[in-house]
Write a structure and sequence with these properties.
The complex is a heterodimer of chains A (500) and B (289).
Chain A lengths: L2 E12 L2 E12 L3 E5 L6 H8 L7 E6 L2 E3 L4 H6 L2 E4 L11 H8 L6 H15 L14 H13 L5 E5 L7 H16 L3 E6 L2 H7 L2 E6 L2 E7 L5 H9 L17 E9 L13 E6 L3 E5 L6 H9 L7 E6 L2 E2 L5 H6 L2 E4 L14 H9 L6 E2 L2 E2 L1 H14 L16 H13 L5 E5 L7 H16 L3 E5 L3 H7 L2 E6 L2 E2 L3 E2 L5 H8 L5
Chain B lengths: L2 H30 L7 H19 L2 H25 L4 H20 L13 H20 L1 H11 L1 H6 L4 H27 L11 H11 L4 H23 L6 H21 L1 H7 L13
Classes of the chains: A alpha/beta (500), B mainly alpha (289).
Chain lengths: 500, 289
């Protein structure tokens, strides 16, 4: 088999970072070629260069041994390169049919589109209703739509950027079957992932990237997750295993019969959620994105007076109508999903960001003035205790890397001595070193008696640190499962909505 | 009430509302692609004055129409260059365009104020305005180009990722909107008045802007809304004819009060606003590098 894509000495830098450093490797025709690396290793930049979305500083790409100058996504599409994006490129207010038409190179009539998409759907087992608005589709259906839209152009090369990060285990195995069939029919698939087992199951070859450089390109045949993981990181990561045979007794936080009835089609309605959290317990809320996590967090935070029915109790006190700061004063702390813009203001310094989240505490104020001395020393303590890599507390929050900023934010919340800590996606999109540190910190915190709720799409993370896990599906929360003797098949079924 | 009076009123409403339809439908297309152009008032005035001056100097209706259109292309082209290529703030740039247009038209028209001309019949423009609304409606909902305009306004990053040229699309819609505004101005100074007077558009540009929101970005609702707004403005003289004595200022306020009420009503329904408003409206687009 000959090479369909050849990367030659690709170099791309952004201010302060080298995203791709002399990247060269070949991709064989009709193969599944994975690109492996942790967040920030340069995988996405590289495929965006191939798709014409990003311009390289130097280097060449050969397609079928011919030099290809790919200036824009439309050039890439004309060369037969299509891409399925990690954050979907769908238009929310348009219908499925309109989204399909927008993705096609040629102009076709609606009836012809129906025939063509039906052929593809039948052949590979997709299920699409052309008249549905996008807002009514589940994440899995949205991905199907993205793939069908790419296939309508009869591509030769299909790039998939982290396609499994939003799917249930069941949907993942379906997707893999489809990909294998596509390759049999002549397609070349470039598959980006940081999940080791997936890559070994699915792909023929893997290129491992670290800090923008190619570590090696190998066949996946003789690899196992451990060796591959070591190659990806360059070091071994120790797991933060939770000791879970503790008997929890004291109840600290309860949600009773929580429901919402919003008419907004862009939100998920919560349906009779019950949750009991004990002192020192870590409770994981699993589930694919878009199943009500955002809405649940909104209600737990109460920043926008989100309407709901039901009751929330913290140490037997009904906190339904308490504001965010009143809840914080009761020693509940929050780490929201969006690091920049929600948990921290990017244009403000680390010290200022401390004050913004702590201004309910009188020790940081002198009358009506800000006590910068106290705040600065508090910020220094956070930086020191949580190993935040920054020259000083005067650095703007937006200048920190994702991992460092997350350590700073979690550190800030932990140092305010919470009794309950609520985290949303605590390790999303950060480097493996910071991820391990944060997980270890969370586990240690629970051993000191702090109760913790983690909302996460990352099942492995929850299995590693939590005592109990429940699954959120279309606004309903499953019964909690004990992690110690957890049944993975059952958990997978829960994630697909199969629970009462 | 006699039938002649009713026909008379309807006739006046038709004639006086047409500029709102022109400016409104142009701005609707611009906003559908995600750009907010607050410069309508300025564009209308410049379109009105260039058309008027050309007609006085050449006596040729065709030349005056063309020059009025060209003024719209140039001014909205500058606006497009500023907000698309230099990524200036759309609101500030639009306001600057209005202030600039008011000043420029006053300066150009100084010598021509009060010059008598023979006006053009408004009925051609009235017919065209109806055809225009229906063709824009068809263009946006049925053609692929219209779909691209909507896609660009809905999510410009996705549109670029699918291979569409966001900047080019927005140039097209901004200039279309600009030309429609100058036509609205041309109509006012050549057909409706017909004369030139400083600031003669009298805030119609602002009403047209409110109209687009009132119509929740739907062409046929824009047409209905334009006639409601136009009707309110005309009520003044006719109620007086029936012997209702109210200060004229109250009636002059009416369109703005109606606009306010409608705006409050519309924005109280978050869901409807979210479903119909282009998501990328007023958000600058930065091309990936």
């Amino acid at each position: 088999m000959q090479s369909i894509v050849e990367f030659k000495n690709i170099f791309k830098s952004y201010p302060g970072v080298i995203a791709n450093d002399d990247v060269s490797f070949n991709i064989k025709e009709q193969s599944i070629h994975a690109i492996l690396g942790e967040n920030g290793a340069g995988k996405s930049t590289l495929v965006k260069i191939l798709y014409g979305h990003v311009k390289p500083d130097s280097g060449e790409i050969l397609i079928n041994s011919d030099l290809a100058i790919i200036n824009s996504p439309s050039t890439a599409k004309n060369l037969g390169i299509n891409m399925v994006f990690q954050h979907f490129s769908l238009f929310e207010s348009l219908t499925v049919a309109e989204n399909l038409i927008l993705g096609m190179n040629e102009n076709i009539s609606l009836t012809k589109l129906k025939d063509k998409s039906k052929t593809i759907c039948d052949k590979y087992g997709f299920n699409l209703n052309l008249n549905s608005p996008i807002s009514s589709l589940s994440v899995g259906q949205r991905q199907s739509l993205e793939i069908v839209r790419s296939l309508l152009n009869n591509p030769k090369i299909l790039i998939m950027d982290e396609p499994t990060s939003v799917l249930t285990p069941d949907e993942i195995s379906k997707l893999f079957k489809i990909i294998k069939n596509l390759v049999k029919d002549g397609l070349t698939v470039i598959f980006i992932s940081h999940k080791l087992e997936e890559i070994i199951n699915l792909s023929d070859y893997v290129t491992i990237m670290r800090n923008g450089k190619v570590v090696s390109t190998i066949s996946t045949q003789n690899e196992d997750p451990e060796t591959l993981g070591y190659k990806m990181l360059g070091y071994k990561v120790s797991k933060a295993k939770q000791v879970s045979d503790i008997n929890f007794s004291q109840e600290i936080f309860n949600i009773k019969n929580l429901s919402t009835q919003s008419k907004d089609p862009f939100t998920v309605n919560l349906n009779k959620i019950d949750l009991n959290l004990k002192k020192g317990q870590i409770f994981g809320i699993a589930g694919v994105a878009g199943n009500g996590q955002k809405e649940l967090m909104e209600i737990l935070l109460n920043e926008n007076d989100y309407e709901f029915s039901g009751d929330i109790f913290f140490k037997d006190l009904n906190i339904n109508n308490l504001s965010t700061f009143q809840r914080k004063s009761l020693s509940i702390s929050y780490v929201t999903e969006e690091r920049l813009g929600h948990s921290a203001v990017p244009e403000m310094s680390l010290s200022e960001n401390i004050f913004l989240s702590m201004n309910h505490k009188s020790e940081f104020k002198k009358g009506d003035f800000i006590n910068f001395e106290k705040i600065n020393s508090f910020a220094s303590d956070v930086i020191k205790n949580f190993k935040v890599d920054t020259p000083s507390y005067n650095v703007k929050a937006g200048k920190l890397s994702g991992g460092n900023l997350q350590k700073f934010i979690i550190g800030r919340e932990i140092m305010s001595n919470p009794e309950l800590l609520i985290l949303s996606q605590p390790t999303w999109g950060i480097d493996a070193g910071s991820e391990a540190f944060i997980k270890k910190t969370i586990v240690e915190l629970s051993q000191k008696g702090v109760s913790i709720i983690i909302i996460s799409h990352d099942l492995d993370e929850l299995l590693e640190v939590c005592h109990e896990i429940a699954v959120l599906y279309e606004g309903s929360l499953s019964k909690p499962l004990n992690v110690e003797n957890i049944n993975i098949t059952k958990l997978g079924k829960y994630m697909g909505g199969l629970f009462d | 009430m006699n039938i002649e009076l009713i026909i008379g009123i309807l006739n006046i409403v038709l004639i006086s509302t047409t500029p709102l339809v022109f400016a409104g439908i142009g701005e609707l297309v611009t906003e559908k692609s995600g750009v907010l152009n607050l410069g309508l008032e300025g564009l209308m005035l410049v379109g009105a004055v260039t058309g008027f001056i050309t007609l006085v100097l050449t006596g040729n209706y065709f030349y005056s129409l063309i020059l009025s259109i060209i003024s719209g292309v140039i001014l909205s082209g500058i606006f497009a260059f500023l907000v698309l290529n230099l990524m200036t703030n759309q609101i500030a740039t639009g306001l600057a365009l209005t202030i600039f247009g008011i000043g420029l038209s006053a300066m150009l028209g100084k010598k021509f104020s009060g010059t008598p001309i023979e006006g053009l019949s408004p009925y051609y423009f009235i017919v065209i305005s109806f055809l225009l609304v229906f063709s824009v409606g068809y263009f946006l909902s049925k053609t692929k180009s219209g779909l691209i305009v909507r896609a660009v306004g809905e999510n410009h990053n996705s549109a670029y990722a699918l291979g569409y040229n966001v900047i080019k699309t927005r140039y097209f819609t901004i200039i279309f909107g600009g030309v429609m505004s100058s036509l609205a101005g041309y109509y006012i100074s050549i057909c409706y008045a017909p004369m030139w007077q400083e600031g003669m558009t009298a805030g119609r540009g602002w009403i047209a802007l409110a109209l687009v929101v009132f119509a929740t970005w739907k062409p046929w609702r824009l047409l209905v809304g334009a006639y409601i707004f136009g009707g309110v403005a005309i009520m003044q003289m006719n109620l007086q004819a029936f012997g209702v004595e109210l200060p004229g200022q109250i009636f002059n306020m009416m369109p703005y009060i109606a606009t306010l009420i409608v705006l409050v009503f519309i924005s109280s329904n978050k869901v409807r606003l979210k479903l119909s408003a282009p998501s990328c409206l007023n958000i600058p687009y930065e091309k990936n590098s």
